[in-house]
Every structure is written in structure tokens, then in C-alpha cells.
Design goal:
This protein is of the alpha+beta class and about 325 residues long. It has 9 helices and 15 strands. Among the domains are: about 80 residues, no CATH class; about 110 residues, Metallo-beta-lactamase, Chain A. Strand 5 and strand 6 form a beta hairpin. The structure holds zinc ion. Zinc ion binds next to helix 4.
Length: about 325
């Protein structure tokens, strides 16, 4: 199957978010070639489907994703459930994305390929999410960075080879408290679904900033508490890119009961005034320019009366309602 590529007019425009492969099976009834390839590929258990560009097709076999320039590749398991989408953002930078239909949102990480070393920015939700990342990284020395210790950013680490794991100091403390508690709760709520998850705590901690040398580029990590106390951002100055984790979100940020709005706004304002930042990539929602930082600042500052888009989905409608409740209830939140 390696290298087999087929084209099917019927599929054009039908490859959507999670569940797309199941839809594709239905569509494939109309296309014999597509049906045959999809069936064989699923038996092989390895299937890549680029989702943008002129020619939708399925390519199966051992992925050599690092050699391909297609903007997006989907990786599926043997049941046809899409696990990870890889987006080729720019040379040396891939974004890793997983849809979580049970949760109502998606999460995004990144793979940064420097000339000497690679960094995986967040390992997402499950070890299987990292399978295509192993191919991207290849034999490069690897470092892992946790943007913070929320479950959807750190549960995939066991799917990677052993590597140094870098995070803010408070991230390590969370591995002794809410991190195992969240895993136990989700394992109890969804039996069997999270059995493969192994909690892997950070090995290298920093309190304020830390710069990683990847060869031709650097990744500067900086503490930006707010969403959680251990949140960080990552600046790739050579590319003008800020990996923002959960410090900003599109369409609106997510507050927790212990969020400090004043520290959060202060941190975002610092980055909003930094002319090196040209592109802001959040873990949830669309990327944008520095205006994404400004929108988040305005939202946080104006709570509980923040303006929000009219077309919020269920997840963000509930998030906004919770943010409003927290902002009127919590003394900590009102310190902004
Ligand atoms: Zn998150």
C-alpha cells in the first residue's frame, strides 16, 4: 500500500473534522477505487489524508510526513477515528491538532524542528496522539515542553521516546495534586478510554524564563499565569511566532476559580507590546496576529460585561457564562 495515491471527485470538500473518516466510508460507496483503498488502509491501521488543497486523497503506508509539504494530514486508527491532524504551518513548524467531540472542543500543540534539536510543545490528550509526531521528529534530539498541566496538553507524553520535559515550576507541583486526580476522574467516568495514559512529570523546571537553542532557531519560554498558575508561552523570535498555550483562546479565554485576572492582563500586555510577535498560535481556536492578544486583554478587563461574538458554540457559551459568574464572585478575579 505504500505510496498508493488515488483521487476521487466525490470526496472533494467532504473531509471535515473528527468523524470525517466515517463520513468518508459513506462517500466511498460512490467510488470503487476509494472504497478499496480505504478498506485496505484501515486494515493496515495507518492512514493519512491531506485535507486541504486541490486533490483530496488517501495515502497509506509508513508516513514520511516530514518530507511532505501538504498543509494538513490526518492520522487515523484502525476504527477510522481520526486522532491527530498535522498542519504544516511554515518550514520547521507543524501544528498538532486533536478534536475532542465528547468535550466539545479541539486542542492544538506544535512540533518545532530546529537544525540541531526538535521540541514537542504539548503532547495533547493520549499517547496515540503522538504517533505521527514520532515520524516528524525522526532521529533529532527531542525536548518536550508543557504549556501547563491541564490534561488535554500532557497526557500523550508516553507516546513519545523518553526526553527531557520542560515546564514552569508550578507545573511540577500540579503533578502531585490535580493532575492525578483528573486522570482518576476521567478513567472512572469513561472506563477503558484513558487506560494507556501514563502521567510523565516535567524533569526541567524554570520560574520565569528559559531559552532553548534548537540550532538555527531559539524557543524562549516565559511564565504567563492567569488561566492557570503554571501557564507559559513560547516565543520563536526568528519566525515572529508566539505559542500561547491557553493564555489566549479564540473566541474567548477560559477562567478558572483561582485565575488572577490582573497578572493575566499584565502578562498579555507585555507580549502585545513586543514587536517581535507577529503570529499568535493558541491551543484552542484560530490563530491570528497580535490582535488576538488585544482581544483577550479586552475580554478579561471588561468582565463581566465583555463583548462576545453572537455565534458562540455551546462550549464557549457555557465558558463565557462561567467566566461571568467567576468574575462577579471571586475576589481574586476581581483584582483586575
Ligand atoms: Zn487547554
Amino acid at each position: 500500500m505504500h505510496g498508493i495515491v488515488r483521487q476521487c471527485e466525490t470526496l472533494r470538500g467532504h473531509v471535515g473534522p473528527c468523524g470525517a473518516m466515517r463520513a468518508m466510508h459513506g462517500i466511498a460507496k460512490h467510488c470503487t477505487a476509494m472504497r478499496n483503498i480505504a478498506g485496505i488502509a484501515l486494515q493496515c491501521g495507518v492512514l493519512w489524508a491531506p485535507t486541504r488543497g486541490a486533490l483530496p486523497y488517501i495515502l497509506s503506508g509508513v508516513p514520511q510526513a516530514q518530507q511532505r509539504m501538504d498543509p494538513a494530514w490526518r492520522y487515523s486508527d484502525t476504527t477510522g477515528c481520526i486522532m491527530t491532524t498535522l498542519h504544516h504551518y511554515r518550514p520547521g513548524l507543524w501544528l498538532t491538532e486533536v478534536e475532542l467531540p465528547d468535550e466539545g472542543f479541539a486542542v492544538r500543540g506544535a512540533v518545532i524542528l530546529g537544525s540541531q534539536r526538535a521540541v514537542v510543545w504539548d503532547t495533547l490528550t493520549h499517547p496515540r496522539d503522538m504517533q505521527p509526531v514520532r515520524d516528524l521528529v525522526g532521529n533529532r534530539p527531542l525536548m518536550v515542553v508543557y504549556s501547563h498541566a491541564d490534561w488535554d496538553h500532557i497526557w500523550g507524553t508516553a507516546g513519545l521516546p523518553p526526553a527531557p520535559i520542560i515546564a514552569h515550576t508550578e507545573c511540577a507541583a500540579r503533578f502531585a495534586s490535580d493532575v492525578p486526580a483528573t486522570l482518576h476522574a476521567k478513567q472512572a467516568a469513561q472506563p477503558g478510554q484513558w487506560d494507556a495514559v501514563r502521567l510523565v512529570p516535567p524533569t526541567t523546571l524554570f520560574p520565569q524564563t528559559l531559552t532553548l537553542d534548537l540550532g538555527d532557531i531559539t524557543l524562549t519560554l516565559a511564565h504567563l499565569p492567569g488561566h492557570t498558575s503554571d501557564c507559559i508561552v513560547g516565543l520563536i523570535a526568528e519566525w515572529g511566532i508566539l505559542l500561547a498555550g491557553d493564555t489566549v483562546e479564540t473566541p474567548l479565554p477560559f477562567l478558572n476559580p483561582d485565575s488572577s485576572r490582573s497578572r493575566w492582563i499584565e502578562g498579555l500586555e507585555m507580549w502585545a507590546s513586543d514587536s517581535r510577535v507577529q503570529h499568535v498560535i493558541p491551543a484552542h481556536g484560530d490563530s491570528d496576529g497580535p490582535t488576538l492578544l488585544q482581544r483577550s486583554i479586552a475580554y478579561l478587563r471588561n468582565l463581566p460585561h465583555s463583548a462576545v461574538p453572537a455565534d458562540l458554540d455551546d462550549f464557549y457559551r457555557e465558558t463565557h457564562a462561567a467566566n461571568v459568574r467567576l468574575s462577579t464572585r471571586s475576589a481574586t478575579l476581581n483584582d483586575g
